[in-house]
Amino acid sequence: MFQRLRDTLHPRIKFLLRYGISGVMGGVTQLVAVYVAVEIFHVWYMDGVVIGFIFALTVSFVLQKFWTFREPSKERAKGQFAWYSLVALGVLWGNIFFMHLFVERFGIWYLWAQALTIFIVALGSFLLNNFITFRHSEHAIFRG
């Protein structure tokens, strides 16, 4: 059943599904790391966001490079990781901004705020990584 469904999906839909699954895995990694940092190690939630970011950056880069964009080049890996990290730093800034807004201004519980923030910054991250970081990948959904 799943094989037939997979065979009938358009390649761009498959790509977006891989991107989404990779993003969810990065988001789950970040949420778990934030939770562990705050609830177990009693770290301030904003520091927890940074800790979660570091874990999620590593997990999501590996998934995006090798699975989503299917970009096996080891020669480009350092440059791609540099670009990916720059995009991720922009995402981190957005993450901190929205976390502050949602938690401090709107009083939303930090884990709900983190989940909502991840959703908001995902689109910008996708566009930048698609057009910049993995622009040489033949699997990029849109190429400039």
What key attributes describe this structure?
144 residues; mainly alpha; 5 helices; globular
Give a written overview of the molecule.
The chain is an all-alpha fold. It has one domain. About 80% of the residues lie in helices and about 0% in strands. It has helices at about 1-10, 10-40, 45-70, 75-105, 110-135. The N and C termini lie far apart (about 35 Å). The model has no long low-confidence stretch (mean pLDDT about 85).
Q: How large is the count of helical segments? A: 5
Amount of beta strand: under 5%
Q: H/E order of the elements?
A: HHHHH
Judged by helices, strands and strand pairing, the structural class is mainly alpha
Count of domains:
1
Q: Roughly how many Å is the radius of gyration? A: 16 Å
Number of strands: 0
Shape: globular
Q: Strand count, sense and closure of the main sheet?
A: none
Overall pLDDT score: 87
* Percent in helix: over 70%
Q: List the uncertain runs.
A: none
Distance between the termini: 36 Å
Report a brief summary of the structure:
With 144 residues, the protein is an all-alpha fold.
Topology (SSEs and partners):
Layout: H1 2-8, H2 11-40, H3 45-68, H4 77-105, H5 110-133
Helix pairs in contact: 2-3, 2-5, 3-4, 4-5
